[in-house]
């Protein structure tokens, strides 16, 4: 009976030792594989192989449980890869999965905000920036700068003026872009003063003047004036020499009226077209300047 008990005890001890050995070996193998995968991922990212990194990250999502995915910061790295590829919808999707406990959380909020800004979702972008904790003066200055850029995107000049007063002069990565923002504000205000009605009235008084007012294109303005002047003179000569029923007056009078009225209408429409072109170009420049400090600070 004693021998049997001793034998069972020995068997149990060996089994336990074997189980622990297998567990430790498996854990070490798992840890080594995890380390290799992590190193390979960062190698791809360092080589700007974002497409391959996304493929590898997708494999990790299938291979590892959620806890390991968070440990590897997979949502952040996948979001960053899509961001680098300018696939911003996908970038914002994965950035939204980054935990608040992640060391990359603040950076994620900034990158997600600029992505939403590019996607013309400025209200979402503002909410993300406001959620960034003021851990230091640089973070606070960067938040103010980004919010000022968003105010310009929305053409909210009073809001921009309020934020501009809080601009910091202590950080080189922000100074140049802050100065650019001040210039953009002046240009935006100047552009906003152009009126379709004024363009139409100028074209009615002097054909071509509306074109000059809208776009500052002297050559186009002169060309329009000459066209209308030639047609008008031909119509006048036809009326003076041959009367109101003459084919010459009817043809040239009709052409003059068509060009004259078309020039007035075109000048008014050009204000809206030029304004949209201006806004698109200006927004592109504002977004570019919003991105530069983020790249400098976080790299």
Give me a quick take on this structure.
The protein is mainly α and 299 residues long.
- Number of β-strand runs: 0
Structural class: mainly alpha
Overall pLDDT score: 82
Report the order of strands and helices. HHHHHHHHHHHHHH
Counting DSSP H or I runs of 4 or more residues, the number of helices is: 14
- Rg from Cα: 34 Å
**Termini separation:** 72 Å
Percent strand: under 5%
What would you say this structure looks like, in words?
By secondary structure, the protein is mainly alpha-helical. Among the domains are: 1-100, no CATH class; 196-284. It has helices at residues 2-46, 50-63, 66-71, 74-84, 88-95, 105-118, 122-130, 137-153, 157-164, 172-192, 196-205, 209-215, 218-242, 247-298. The longest helix has 52 residues, at 247-298. The chain starts with a helix and ends with a helix.
